[in-house]
Amino acid sequence: PMIAGISGPPGIGKTTIARALYNQLSCDFSLSYFMENVNGSSRSSLKIRFQEHLLSRILNQSGMKICHLDVRYERLRNQKVLIILDDVDHLDQLDALAGDVSRLGPGSRVIVISESQELLHQNGINYIYHVRFPSNEEALEIFCRYAFRESSPTNGFGKLSRRITELCGNLSLCLSVVGSSLRGKKKDEWENVMRRLESSVDDGYIQRALRVGYESLPDKYQILFLHIAVFFNKKDDDHVNAMLGGCNLDVRLGLRNLVNRSLIGLSTNGVITMHKLLEQTGREAIQRQELRTRHILINAHEICLILQSDTDAKAVAGISF
Hints:
By secondary structure, the chain is α/β, with parallel strands linked by helices. It has three domains: 2-130, P-loop containing nucleotide triphosphate hydrolases (Rossmann fold, 3-Layer(aba) Sandwich); 136-216; 219-290, Arc Repressor Mutant, subunit A. The protein contains 14 helices and nine strands. It has helices spanning 14-25, 43-59, 91-102, 117-122, 136-147, 158-167, 172-182, 187-199, 205-215, 219-232, 237-244, 251-260, 276-288, 300-307; strands spanning 2-7, 31-35, 81-85, 109-114, 127-130, 265-266, 272-273, 296-297, 318-319. Strands 2-3-4-1-5 form a five-stranded parallel β-sheet, with helices on both faces. Helix 6 (158-167) runs parallel beside helix 8 and helix 9 (205-215) crosses helix 13 (276-288). The longest helix has 17 residues, at 43-59.
């Protein structure tokens, strides 16, 4: 099979491009698989996950489990397969799947997404598309698609749109988050956001822009955002609803709100995805809160301090360390 790569910095749109390719090309293949969140996976868990999915598709039986790695691939040799591996961060992960990939049928295609172009080269991948930052005009159009649902600024918002686009550093993730947060807002609210972006000189432009997206949320949805960032990324919406449904929070409405603001993705089968930069934004937001008011604790030392206090511990809803 032919193996190609997509590389570029975080938040630039690699996964978005790969998703578009997958949706466009998968109908031409007998089997297709978009493997998300390869990042951090061990060799064995990655291999089993890969084999379980393909075996389930081949035998048309969902949820198959295998307890060992000795899976026969005779039926794969005649299958034209499209595989996309998202967020690969270690050479071992590609090595773990090399044998499986080599047994795919003629015409199969594998696309590997990684921040590291060097990692792709090390694995012998020579066909690499490096996603570059959009030009100023392209970045403005991306921003406007989210802010106005148009390709250009609404009358009276041109100068503000260009300045905010510049402050977002032409990074697709920041443009989508900030643009979504400003959709339908009045001009004075835009000016306020611009001033906040300009004044946060101690933070990088990515942190500044993503913080605007988080801080634009109503308080109840900020809480939901933080829970997803710490506990529920890659979980399904039913699970989140079951865990948080008793907290005077309309979880499903909140999830739709976060999707509309480009802060999370929600797949057709209900799986929530949050970009790792937004996860980081959530954790940083927790650390900025006054310790005794935090609903979520993520630092071992602070957890000990709070749990030793009878009064301060009452606000705690979750612990992760």
